[in-house]
Amino acid sequence: MILEGRILSPQGFVRGRLHFSERILAVEEAPVEGPYILPGFLDLHVHGGLGADAMEGKEAVLRMARFHLQHGTTGLLPTTVTAPPEAIEKALRGIAEAMAECEALLGAHLEGPFLSPKRLGAQPPFPQKPDPAWMEDLLARAPVRVVTLAPELPGALELVRLLAGRGVRVQLGHTAAGYEEALHALEAGAQGFTHLFNAMTPLHHRAPGVAGLALERGLWAELIPDGLHVHPAALRLALKSVPGLYLVTDAVAAAGMPEGLY
């Protein structure tokens, strides 16, 4: 098969023809017109879309996945919010059921509920203290790939060690931690940072905060690149500082809906 257009290459976009079968066979540069040709997007932090929310069960998860597939996202992590335990358990059950029918669903991202009450942002007001026994139960309900937590909470470091031992990526976010508290979490096995710069202690030259730690030592960090959550200059700084910086939508159910009140 052959596709013509602007092909993403290690050197940037080039005009040409992409020859492929099950794998790419060749790229032939040529002065052709056509669409952009690039791998599907991965969105590792997405709450919903087209009126569907990841907290609402299997059918809603499938609906949001179909919506994002239409916009080029071929792999995503449906993301939960801070909510009562039964609501989170229902959400994970729905994600697991939907995964059996949709290969684009790569697992679950638990954003909370182990978050700082001081840095909830747009999260519902249901933060909870880290609970290893309950986390074990949640891990049994669905393939949890990422957990966002606040490292300053009592018991958080124990939870970080548990999750890291299970191969779950722990990200620091929605946190009022200082630099040293967050550093202890990295030493315990945390690897990433959730929506860098947002809902975390900011960088100051005398108190680097969680944002400063991410820029200094972060292996992974997600960032919302809509131009509203983060200034373009801060995005460029993050690109220079974090080897594994990746972009997320953090989209909610209203994404893709007509203008209105939701």
UniProtKB/TrEMBL annotation:
<dbReference type="InterPro" id="IPR006680">
    <property type="entry name" value="Amidohydro-rel"/>
</dbReference>
<protein>
    <submittedName>
        <fullName>N-acetylglucosamine-6-phosphate deacetylase</fullName>
    </submittedName>
</protein>
<dbReference type="GO" id="GO:0006046">
    <property type="term" value="P:N-acetylglucosamine catabolic process"/>
</dbReference>
<dbReference type="GO" id="GO:0008448">
    <property type="term" value="F:N-acetylglucosamine-6-phosphate deacetylase activity"/>
</dbReference>
<comment type="similarity">
    <text>Belongs to the metallo-dependent hydrolases superfamily. NagA family.</text>
</comment>
<dbReference type="Pfam" id="PF01979">
    <property type="entry name" value="Amidohydro_1"/>
</dbReference>
<dbReference type="InterPro" id="IPR032466">
    <property type="entry name" value="Metal_Hydrolase"/>
</dbReference>
<feature type="domain" description="Amidohydrolase-related">
    <location>
        <begin position="36"/>
        <end position="226"/>
    </location>
</feature>
<keyword id="KW-0378">Hydrolase</keyword>
